[in-house]
Amino acid sequence: MAQGFRVRNPNTGAIMLDITDRITRTIGTFETGVVDGSFQITDGVGGQAWLSVLSDLAVTSDTATPEVTLSGNTISWSYRQFPWPQGRRSVLVIYGTY
């Protein structure tokens, strides 16, 4: 029988984590600012990149947050749907690998 790290649910005995599972690693955060841009994830390359976007809840019809996308290890953001810079809102991007 193979050995390794395995965590089981104490009530059911079901496997919750096995050594072959991938666990996320948060690498960092940044603010997008209010202009279009991109960011290259250079630390932790080798796993699959992920991101999460946190925005201010005070966004209204005359303000906008960017569209944030992930392609490989590059995070990009664009305000193409909202051309007026005075109403743009920066968002916090949390990123990492798994």
Succession of helices and strands? EEEEEEEE
How many individual helices?
0
Oligomer: single chain
Gross morphology: elongated
Strand content: 35-45%
Supply the helix-strand structural class: mainly beta
Mean pLDDT: 85
Strand element count:
8
Low-confidence sequence ranges:
none
What is the radius of gyration? 19 Å
**Sheet with most strands:** 3 strands, antiparallel
Helix percentage range: under 10%
Task: Detail the topology: elements first, then pairings.
Blueprint: E1 6-8, E2 15-18, E3 25-31, E4 37-40, E5 49-54, E6 67-71, E7 74-78, E8 92-97
Antiparallel strand pairs: 1-2, 3-8, 4-7, 5-8, 6-7
Quick summary:
With 98 residues, the chain is mostly beta strands. Helices cover 0% and strands 41% of the residues. It has no helices and eight strands.
Write a structural description.
The chain is mostly beta strands. The protein has no helices and eight strands. The protein has strands at 6-8, 15-18, 25-31, 37-40, 49-54, 67-71, 74-78, 92-97. The strands form three sheets. It has a three-stranded antiparallel β-sheet with strand order 3-8-5, with no helix packed on it. The model has no long low-confidence stretch (mean pLDDT 85).
Keywords:
three-stranded antiparallel sheet; 98 residues; 41% strand; elongated; single chain; mainly beta
